[in-house]
Amino acid sequence: MVTGKIDDKGRLAIPTTVREKLGLEPGDVIVFDTSTQVLRIAKVVNPFDALIDEAIDEYEAGNTVSLRDFAKSEGIELE
Asked: What is the rounded distance in angstroms from the CA atom of residue 14 to the CA atom of residue 21?
């Protein structure tokens, strides 16, 4: 468990260990889930960034097919 401190302006100081673990950098947006008595914090990730990262990983792993090969396998003629 790690503790943080709230200053007199209501700002929350997030400890370095937590910032590093979550990959938080200045300007990042975080979400506070207050639906329970336990405060949960999560970094907001742009879904398009996540898709790009996944696509790059798939490409580097060799799990992609070129458009021409896909069209050929589906019987689609490209002009």
From this structure: 11
The structure tokens listed for 2 are 């790690």
Give the model's pLDDT for residue 43.
Answer: 83
Beta strands in the chain (DSSP E): 5-6, 12-13, 30-33, 40-43
Match 């792993």 to its residue by tokens: 61
**Model pLDDT, residue 2:** 83
pTM above 0.70, yes or no: no
Return the CATH architecture of domain 1-44. Answer: Ribbon (2.10)
